[in-house]
Amino acid sequence: MPLPPVAINYLNHPQLPPTVASKQLLAAVGQSQLIQTWEKLFAIYDIHIGQMLLTRADIEDRERFLNARDTLHALLDNRIIPVINENDAVATAEIKVGDNDNLSALMAILVQADRLENRKQWLFTAPSAGVLTIDEGAQSAVLIQHKSLLPAGIVSVSGRFSRGEVVRIRNAQGKDIALGMPRYNSDALELIKGKQSQDIEQQLGYEYGAVAIHRDDMIVL
Fold first, then answer.
1. What is d(CA 127, CA 41) in angstroms, rounded to the nearest whole number?
2. What is the value of pTM for the model shown?
3. Of 30, 131, 178, 217, which has the fewest Cβ atoms less than 10 A away?
């Protein structure tokens, strides 16, 4: 990790021991200085920005990946320019992204510039962590209308799983009809099953969107 010159100048060339912690200290200071500079420059054109600091672990862990993806989409949907950097203040060699080319490639995945088929192929090979049993209306929506699965169509939740883990979608007759990555974990889905989407925030105190499993995160068997 190179020493951030912005931080060195801001701190008036401090005498620090040559340790990883010292480099991360300078990275933390430098990041705050750089984002202030970006804010001033974009403000000239009346453009808002938001900072995202990532490590490789944020991409490789499914739940953290989904959180980062949702944040990025929310920024873009609200016409806020994301300023994305590696989080050098916490990154170690094991979780560093590396150079800007690597970071750009990972950002392309976050904004779904990767092929949808690759994600669906992953759904086929990943082990399932639970089962969502759905009613006939939801089955029709998934199989015939090719729609997302809403909480209202979920009858029961089996297993314990995190947001983004693969689950099986099962019909009332006990047949697995699809695989998908839910936007909510098993505890949350237990609370919102059978509920209307507009009631999610009232039930949970937060919401990750109106659907339990988005169509893009699902594959029919």
1. 47
2. 0.61
3. 131
